[in-house]
Design brief:
By secondary structure, the protein is mostly beta strands. It has 2 domains: 335 residues, YVTN repeat-like/Quinoprotein amine dehydrogenase (Methylamine Dehydrogenase, Chain H, 7 Propeller); 99 residues, Immunoglobulin-like, CATH 2.60.40.10. The chain contains 1 helix and 35 strands. Strands 3-2-1-28 form a 4-stranded antiparallel β-sheet, with no helix packed on it. Strands 4-5-6-7 form a 4-stranded antiparallel β-sheet, with no helix packed on it.
Amino acid sequence: MPDTAVSEVPREPAGRRCRPGAARRTRVGAWSTSLAVVLAAFALTTPLAAPSAAAPSAAAQPSGNPNEYLYIANSTSAASSPYVSVANLNYDDVTGIANVDANPTAVAVKPDGTVAYSANTGADTVTVIDAATDEPRATVQVGQLPQGLAVTPDGNHVYVANTSSNTVSVIDTGTNRVTATVRDDVGEDPFGVATAVTPTGPRAYVTNGDGNVVVIDTSLTVPRVIATIPVSQDPQQVAFSADGSRAYVAGLNGAGTGAVSVIDTATNAVIRTLTLPGSTPYGVATGPSGSDVYVTDTENDAVLVIDPAGQAVTATVSVGDRPFGVVYSSDGNYVYVANFGDSTVSRIGAYLQEPEVVNTLDSSWIEGPVGLAAGPIPASLGDTDLRLKVTKEGKGPRGAVNPDRITLRAELTANGRPLRNKVVTFTSSTAGSAALCTPLTDRRGRVTCHDRYPHTGRICYTATFNGAGGYAPATATTCRRIPEVR
């Protein structure tokens, strides 16, 4: 049975901290603060501009963008309508959203890409998202303040770290129910979670506030902790190498000193600790076999690139403001970074000899991103149909139409049924590639956009849906002649 939620606000433990999306209990450390403090600061300041994409270093350019989706946990999305953004990496564009519960801060995807999961710290729940439609399938009650989660490699279970309950919930993905709760030996403030098949069997590694990583045997009918591994003073996130033989743990070893611990998963022992003076490691990502390890350095607005042996930092990449989550694309060519401070996602060219940001995803549908997860595009649900209507409003002298307000109305359907919560981008022939607006479709699949600039002559307007879930991209263009006002 899941843990029972309580409505009172727990006392904050000393020396711990949490993701910025956690509104109640916090893990207070040298560089992080509670959500309330972060939000107050950003309400009084102008968000930092997204970093510009630098010219890539000389290297073999990949043949195309990753054919997958990126799920983005928007920890500061409005409490009345919290959501996870879905970006189509073919277009580097947010194409839809999935409604979830309050303060989504971590996301994970089944290996086959059919289902995504969102840990919602403000509601003590996990939302099950149908990746084909971006619609919620179920809501699962877990422990207090769920801040980390991971799907097992076989796709059968989700492990959820409940920071305030000091437990780990195990969700059966077939029934969407909690079938076990690991309580013994989890430690204080469990936080980051990763799963893999290691040389000794399937395991879940969970970081905690005691400075340890606990090892859970996920093959057991009743999963339990089988080992405790001391790592850094304040471990955050953990990730496995592609073959499961190594685990990398990002954390702090006192104020102003970061560390990455390398664990041999066959022996459950730390075989190397890379000390990182002046850094604040948080997220960690590993790619295909032999890939570098990417670690977000939150307070320095950077990502550290570390060789697979964990011996040295080989590059430092400047990204957006306050980077937290980080994930590789499945092909290993790119690394995506969630920049909480300026609500952007940086795309790093991992294929470059000198990795650097090659593009920045900056959308009005990204708000305080923390967790990221990448997954394959689901099977097609059929073609989509996008229709665009352009109307002119207002009357000028002698009955002429006033061109100051052009109304664009589009309708998005699939198999004759409306598609809601999908992003439609409007552009015009006079504005170039700049978007006029990027609204979400309503429950009838409809969106409206206005062009307020006075134009004369022939103008073409285009509505574009870049595909989301199992729905194919669609485009509609309508051209009109706008008479000059006299």
